[in-house]
Write the structure tokens for this entry.
Amino acid sequence: MSLLKDNVNEGPGSLRKQLSSGFVECAGVFNGISALQAQEAGFKTLYLSGSSIAACMGLPDLSFTTLSEVAAETRKITAIARPPLIVDADTGFGETGNVTRTVIELEHAGASAIHIEDQVLPKKCGHLPGKEVVTQDDMVRKVRAAVAARKNPDFMIIARTDSYAIEGFDGAVARAKAYLDAGADMIFPEALDSADVFRDFAKAVDGKLMANMTEFGKSPLMSARELEAIGYSLVIFPLTAFRSSLLNVKNVYHRLKKYGTQRDFVDSLMTRDEFYGLIDYHGYEKDDQDIFRGKEK
């Protein structure tokens, strides 16, 4: 790969093309190297969760992160990984005017799509109790502002609704239809609580739908094949790799502290050669020798 080869992000057009060709599976990533690992595993689209950004800072997902911080993380990933990136933009970081700036900043940072939600600030994880939602009209204004702000028409605006837990199925469907009418490219119904509700929602809403398969929440863990069969267009696995890494890091630290050595579990670690291959260490080294230092061929 290296800095000079093959690391141009494919961008919004690629995501649109994937959606036109079939169902899209998005791996949740949380930094540049996890994006490279997802890319190596064969994922064609990536997803950056607001919860993972906050958690990497040691913070809960309660609107503590800023637009600038999310844009910075977006740039780190799109600068190094090829697959298009969908970014969690929370509520758009404020009111309608803030949504405009959010779209401008995240599109400039290399995102291919964002989703904004209809929660009241401070927002919280969609699978926790105590959520509140703004009025449907307020969210419609945000969707219209987001659509108007994008420069690339392929950049996707995904409207998330958290209203199912508050207004019920009919309320969530009504909001989804209003958001599509306002120009949203896709609807993200959060925290649907059964396979039947997922299916019924797809029957009731005529538009592209995104499913969130996060662990330990209200939604059943359905496979990509199952979701495609009932009418969804895209699935995210937002925190699966992140949660796995947290547990493994925890275990490593405890074992190091207990035994004072890694000798007994070194075979469970990524080797230096594997790590260097992942980040293309030798490709960068060759660039340094052949180009940056002016080596004659």
